[in-house]
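Section 3.1: Structural characterization of target chains.
Under the original work plan, the team committed to producing a structural model for every single-chain target entering the pipeline before any wet-lab resources were allocated. The record below documents one such target. The sequence was received from the expression subgroup and is listed exactly as submitted; it comprises 571 residues.
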Amino acid sequence: MHELIRDITLCILFAWMLGLLAHFFRQPLILAYLIAGFVIGPFGLKWVESQQSIGIISELGLIFMLFMIGLEIDLKKIVRAGPVILFAAGSQLAGGMLLGLLLFASIGASIAGGFDAVYLSVACALSSTVIIVKLLYEKHELDTLPGRVTLGVLVLQDVFAILFLAVQPSLGNLQTGVFLLSIGRVAALVATALALSRYVLPWLFHRIARTPELVLLGALAWCFLIGEIAEQLQLSREMGSLVAGVSLSTFPYALDVTAKVTTLRDFFITLFFVALGMTIPIPNLSVIGLALLIAFFTVASRVATTFLPLYLMKQGLRASLLPAINLAQISEFSLVVIQTGVLAGHIQTATASAVSFAFVLLAVLSTFVLARSDALSRRAIATLKRLGLRDLDHVHAADGAGPGAARRIVLLGFYRAASALVAEIERQNVALLEQITVVDFNPMVFRTLADRGVHVIYGDISHVDTLQHAGIGAAEIVILSVPDALLKGATNQRLVRHVRALNPGTKIVATADLLADVGELYAAGADYVTVPRLSDAHELFCVIEAAQQQLLDDKRAELDARLGERREVLP
């Protein structure tokens, strides 16, 4: 017992120290935890050698990590996912699995025995939710079309992982009857958990909502209860903890539970990855070779199974490339799958080590690549066009829409402010739409505006040739409504300078994120600068006044009436 406490102390201490280094050098924390485990484990300094300690630490961490992954799976988002996301996710998973099985089975001599090819295919088909969401959040790209496609694929990957973990214990005897029995056990477990979380847990949590200790204790009790039920059904505690999390994600107190369990999650997830690092041996040449093959295959398969389907669905080169770039790494969930395979005796330790090394390699590379994904996609698009692949702008060129077709008013970039402006014009002066040109590279915006009869040009506004093609030289008014935080490859100030150089006499309306930007935009050549926070402040002040005068219901009714009249492109 004292040895276990000492081992946990070493795990947390080294995880913290190496985590600090990873933070300063902007590397994934998971990488630091894996290295910490390797350093203090049996293959490093040998400060932690007890297999029992490593096993207990790993299992506890795995249970909590799967519980939290389940809590963060939004079933409603899966139901609402559009056909593009569903088809992209389906093709990525099915295509990735098929290509993986073909590749890894063909090199069976180097991964002989067990179900190595199956586990490797599953591991390579999954992408890292932790790394992707963190980087997309920092880049303000979660709510862009490529960001939404990426997140949709990640959610459905998690669902696929749940199904695989359901049948994983039966892989050694995968007969039709055994498979159906496993699915039946999972269905019974899920149905029981969902029924209790819908009809029993809300009643209980409502009565303890004001006692945080009981909320936390209740969530943990639920996690271990469903885990134990799963164990009795011959599934696994890990599978049960995942189902426990998913079932809790659907009930009213999910956010409160998630907030209270987050601290424990971080603690035990750290322990899991440190324990996983302890199992990584010093690699030999065959392990390194397999790890490089896994990494190369993962990147190449994302191009084949993500880029190509999206491109064939006419999403444009950019919206097809970025999800493929975003998803080009191995998931922390892949490490979970591989670890369960090792514990079940389905795969060799060398295979697990190769996957861990490939995960580390791709985690480091993707941190740098995702930070520069926009610039990389631009270069790739230029190359793909030279190779003959057509983008959505080809459609417009074929229709004869060019500089001569430009209108008096040009909207450079189309996001929510521009969507609201178009809806307002439709409501107040629909004839004005005939004088507007919209320039943007969102394929959904392109198709929706074209269907409504609005003149739209598909293109990247950060390129001067796109501005020339849009007819900026003949425009009377140019509106830049997208804030700098959401612009890719450009800023409002740079766009103002480009527009002013192309058309010295046009009226330019720009948008400022910061008050300090206003003067710089005027100096660059803008005629008027909008500051969204000022209009937001005025609206909030009116709401406060209405609330003080007991007129908030009237204010809300007025807003509801205004919203009911609008048909926005980006709701």
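The chain is about 70% helix and 5% strand.
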